[in-house]
Amino acid sequence: MKVTPNKDLTSLNSFKVKAKARQLVEFNEAEELTAYLGNLDQQPNSFLILGGGSNTLFTKDYDGIVLKSADTKIEELSVSEKEITIRAGAACDWDNFVAHCTSRGWNGLENLTLIPGTVGAAPVQNIGAYGTEVSDLILSVQCVNLKTLEIETYSNEQCEFKYRDSVFKRRPYLLITSVNFRLNTESLWSARNRPVFYEIKKLPALLLSIPRVKLTPKIRLSANFDNVRDLLSISIIPPKIKRLAVKKMRQRTMPDPNKIGNAGCFFKSPIVSAEIANRIKSKHASVSIYKENNEQYKLSAGDLIKLAGWNGKTIGNVSINHNRPLILLNTGHASGQEIFDVATRIQNTIKNLVDIKVDFEVVIV
């Protein structure tokens, strides 16, 4: 365990905003953390759990204790002909973990390639991309209850996963120490329970349907999201190839936080009723709408930001990415408060324009 007083957090958040914590505690085992905290008088609400800092915006210094796991172990718990159960420590870099799994032919995580952050942060936000959510693959989550200092295990059902939400987001006193995943290990060409030949037949048509040409304001080649998602769902494509495809797509559209400060997608796409979705569709055809379930629809937050005219704008040291306006960029030496103020202005503009609130995906401190 390592305890650092008056810790500078600039290098520990992907926005690279300046902030300090009264104390940073880095730990490897849950037991050493509970023993340390048991000797403190500190109240639980003065703790902050920090993973990779890729989903956190510090608007000021943190006058409390920041807790950060250092556990990067990956263990194979059980293996069968079809499945493998693995445990990953909360401090594992998420993309390194995905690479570890796909390189061994374990299926499931490849769509989540290049999502920034750590394994411990993944369940909190229920991260997702291209039709896959991490909740689809989580078996259980181990955590420390900072109120009771008990070590607890939450089953997938107890995690109460929803779109970019979980019980851990609503109960910030639950500190995730490790996550158990169940992944598929079946061989590529196993025809058992898998429509292999049907997938081979539809593959060429899907490959041809992915490129999409946009004629306004000028000719631009992009990818059809729905068809990319369908392509990635085809089981005969090896996970290594799927990971490579997702990596190429994300590198083209997602700015590298190591080069320019950002936290990936800052906003969540709102989930609305069919009535609201139909209203938006009739008035604003440029907004992409996706069916979430039989009663709810997801509106593209990026399209809503474009509709409000914010994409490509720069306000002071904060820029809104032109192609992916969900992403806010620290183009200079922006403070966390400056970034928050711009995000709030975007949020208010959309609310006034279409009467829909676009919530923040990033945690504001």
Automatic annotation (TrEMBL):
Task: Give the catalytic activity.
Answer: UDP-N-acetyl-alpha-D-muramate + NADP(+) = UDP-N-acetyl-3-O-(1-carboxyvinyl)-alpha-D-glucosamine + NADPH + H(+)
Q: What's the top EC group for this one? A: oxidoreductase
Q: Which GO terms describe its cellular component?
A: cytosol
A GO molecular function held by the record: FAD binding
Give the signal peptide range. Answer: none
In the UniProt entry, which residues are flagged as the active site?
Answer: R164, C265, E361
The entry's function note states: Cell wall formation.
> Protein name, please?
UDP-N-acetylenolpyruvoylglucosamine reductase
* The species this protein was found in: Pseudomonas abyssi
Q: Which gene encodes it?
A: murB
